[in-house]
Amino acid sequence: MSAADTSQSDRTAPVLDWLATELSADADLELAALVRHLDELGRPEISRNQFHRCLDLLHARSLAISGLFRHRFAAATLPLTVSLHRSATRLVSALGKIAAGYEEVLAEVRHRLVRTVRRNPEAISAKALEILGEQLTIAHLAGNSAPFEFWLRAHSFFRTSKVDSTPADAAAGQASEGALRAYKYILAFSAAQPEGLTGTEINWLSEYLASSAKSIIIRSALPGEGGFGWLWIDPDQDTPPISISRRDPPEVDGLIYFTAEELARRATALIEQLEGEGEPPGNLPASLGRAETATLLRRVREYWTSPPHREHPRRRNQYAVSVCCGLESIWKMLREASSSAQTRFATQWMVVNESPTGYAIMQVTGTANALTPGIAIALRRGQEEPWTLCVVRWIRSETPEQIELGLQVIANTAKPVTVGFRGGSQPRPMRPALVMPPIAALGRQQAILAPAGTYSARRFMLVSDIHRLYIAQGRLLSLDMQTPAVELFQYEIDPYPL
Fold first, then answer.
1. Which of 2, 6, 378, 380 minimizes the number of CB atoms within 10 Å of its CB?
2. Cα 481 to the chain's mean position, in Å?
3. pLDDT at 375
4. Does position 448 have pLDDT exceeding 80, yes or no?
């Protein structure tokens, strides 16, 4: 070994010594060490060759460190605390540096036209795509979207992993198994609309897709008739997959198409197993029960089979609205119906854009907390206007001080009641709920928004005591929406109560 090589080895010795130690249970300590050593390896006196030799060890260590943080992020509500947000930002950045290191290795392989077991483009791309999949997962756990140039990197690694590529439709079959599996994970995860999932749901979905995403079908030719459930990707753009039902693909070469319909069919089989009387599957998350897991799978299955498309264009706007967050807070506020109650329960937000069916709003005053996708939100522009009832479809939180919500309108007015379902061996308590008027244009009859887990039978009792006491028996007609926080069902007053 030359003196130069010895000097380089000495400079990387601290990194290698750390990588040789056992993983500590202290996630913050491990992340700090990872960030510090990545910074050291980026110094000009460290040769790129020495850095590249550390990559595979850094790959394994960073994934282990990310695993330590996953449960912490999942257990938190958005926006994350300053400390957790800083940890998420540093982890996403560290994973990005490792992915960039693999880009350098690939460039070196192409330049030297040399392939070895360690310098195999397919194997390198597989490791890089695995890192990118983890980076995307952590970003969504923190309430963020994919990092800058994430999609360009992912598409580039996938194309590099293809061997002797031809213009035929077997684009996926030409990729190495590991790279293809990691790329399919990224596509399936993105198509499941993770910005609309809670941290616990994201964690379990990630584990589920690690073994199930392989059933995604990828091709390089435009699907024919019946391609409603397909999505397309332009590898030359830094954009996520786009549903064909939302926007037609441009007439350019090199587009990638994929469908998750087979993945949705497998989810259906798992839902039936969860809702059956037999033994539950062995891979259920500890933090989600059978019913909650089935609800999650139903929601992502809908995204995989019928990707959402926007029926109305969003108009940019900017005006202040009062916002009340959470079904229980809305219920209490509507019951009091006084100006002091509005002040106590409501905070000020700014409408960023709007359409007849939804809003995007950003907080401007107060401190938001305990926000999760699927919770109920009530908003109004002026004190004389009624409260519009919405459900949070997605949350973005680039910084702890700023949070943006995507809302789906479900009613323009609501009345607070209590409901209790009949049946079962154990008596069930009455729960707060909101009655919403029928919407003829949507073919919807009267509906009730109640906390998740309220529905348990066809018949229920409804009590209203705002102006006078009113008790009735209702009969459920259809369960139209289920989120981790609320469920919406249509009903009618039962003319023949039991």
1. 2
2. 18
3. 94
4. yes
DSSP per residue, 208-224 = HHHHHGGG-EEESS---
Residue 152 contacts by C-beta under 8 Å, 6 or more apart in sequence? Answer: 235, 236, 237, 238
Q: Where are the beta strands (DSSP E) in 100-229?
A: 217-219
Are 110 and 77 in contact, with CB atoms under 8 Å apart?
Answer: no
N residues, the chain: 498
Give the pTM: 0.88
**CA-closest candidate to residue 195, choices 411, 450, 403:** 403
CA distances from residue 343 to 188, 348, 359 in whole angstroms, order as listed: 43, 10, 22
Sign of CA dihedral 406, 411, 417, 422: negative
């729960």: which residue's tokens?
A: 431
Q: Are 61 and 98 in contact (CB under 8 A)?
A: no
Structure tokens at 390: 């919405």
In angstroms, what CA-CA distances link 341 with 333, 345, 382, 411, 440?
6, 6, 15, 21, 32
Give residue 178's identity as a one-letter amino acid code: G
Which residue shows structure tokens 């390089």? 220
Give the separation between CA 150 and CA 146, rounded to whole angstroms. 6
| Minimum mean pLDDT range among 70-74, 169-173, 256-260, 313-317 | 169-173
CB atoms under 10 Å from CB of 444, counted, come to: 18
Tell me: pLDDT of 491 over 80: yes
Phi-psi region of 413 (alpha: psi -120 to 50; beta: other; left: phi over 0): beta
Q: For residues 387 and 389, what is the distance between their CA atoms, to the nearest angstrom?
A: 6
Question: What is the tally of helices (H) and strands (E) in the chain?
Answer: 12, 16
Question: 52 CB contacts (<8 Å, ≥6 apart)?
Answer: 101, 104, 105, 108
Beta strand 431-436 with 415-421 is antiparallel
Q: Which of 127-136, 141-150, 179-188, 465-474 shows the lowest mean pLDDT across its residues?
A: 465-474
Taking residues 348-363, report their average pLDDT: 91
Q: Please report, as a single letter, which amino acid is at residue 126.
A: A
Contact by Cβ (8 Å): 463, 471: yes
Asked if residue 368 lies in contact with residue 79, where contact means CB atoms within 8 angstroms, the answer is yes
Q: Are 59 and 87 in contact (CB under 8 A)?
A: no
The residue type at 39: D
The answer to whether 333 and 341 are in contact (CB under 8 A) is yes
